[in-house]
Amino acid sequence: VDSFLRMIKSHFAREIDFFNCEHRIRNKMGDYIWVANRGRALWNAKGEVIRFVGLQTDITQRKKAEERLIYNAFHDDLTGLPNRSLFMDRLNQVLLSRSSFAVLYMDIDHFKEVNDTLGHEAGNKLLMIIAKRLENCRRGGDTVARLGGDEFTLLLANVRELSDVEGVVNRVLDEVSLPFEIAGEKITSHLSIGIALGDYLIYKKPEDIIRDADIALYQAKHKGKGSYEIFNRQMSHRKFPF
After folding, report:
1. Bridging pattern class, strands 32-43 and 49-58
2. Domain 2-66, CATH number (from 3.40.850.10, 3.30.450.20, 3.30.479.30, 3.40.50.720)
3. Are 94 and 157 in contact, with CB atoms under 8 Å apart?
4. Residues 187, 181: contact at Cβ < 8 Å?
5. Potential cystine with 228: which of 95, 188, 193, 218 (Cβ 3.0-4.6 Å)?
């Protein structure tokens, strides 16, 4: 409303030819709605406003549609988690904040076998279950995302001790390994996790953090299901098949 009043004031001062402003107001039911106000004033020879002509339109549905489009652009359709774009933005914000952090790069062990034996619908249900369990493990201020396929990430912000990271990792491994039923089959799932630790002095770009966490993930998968590995610089000198 303040922006609308400022625009009206500017229009009355003839600083702008007409006013055009969108803002929220309360309707008769006490609910907030979005409206668009458009119009102009008419002046007499003395420069006094003699008439005010305008139109107010309810644009609540349009605003909701715009909000849905923005939400869908940054969230995964299947799980509702942040997608790669939003996760990379959150990671960039952590770098700009100059705080320490950890990134967990995870994928589901033997996920292809679930799709092949039980079908893609069962695979999708597994992804949704894993997403929910990862959400249950995150702390306030952390971000869980699905990058695509069976790959998930968890950004731990403001990490002070390695034990903080290991505590979350162990909670994730325990939570995900709890059995559940899909398509009449009792299933126990496991994650492999690659971890990149750092701050703005070590990393300058979000892509570099993801790269290192992915390298650590590759090492974790070679240790066996339900394992994790923390990235170290020696890993970056080895040759990996990707």
Report:
1. antiparallel
2. 3.30.450.20
3. yes
4. yes
5. 193
Q: Which residues of the chain form beta strands (DSSP E)?
A: 19-26, 32-43, 49-58, 101-108, 143-148, 151-157, 180-182, 185-187, 191-198, 228-230
pTM metric for this prediction? 0.79
Residue type, 135: E
Distance CA(10)–CA(16), nearest Å, equals 6
Which residues of the chain does CATH 3.30.70.270 include? 77-237
Active site (catalytic) residues: 150
pLDDT tens for each residue of 169-191: 999 999 999 999 987 889 899 99
- Residue 217's nearest CA partner among 89, 90, 106, 103 is 106
Structure confidence at residue 236 (pLDDT): 62
Mean pLDDT of the chain: 91
As annotated, the residues of the chain forming the CATH 3.30.450.20 domain(s) are 2-66
pLDDT < 50: residue spans in the chain: 237, 239-242
**Whose CA is closest to 128, among 80, 173, 190, 169?**
80
Tell me which CATH code domain 77-237 carries: 3.30.70.270
- Which tens digit of pLDDT belongs to each residue from 125-160? 999 999 999 999 999 999 999 999 999 999 999 998
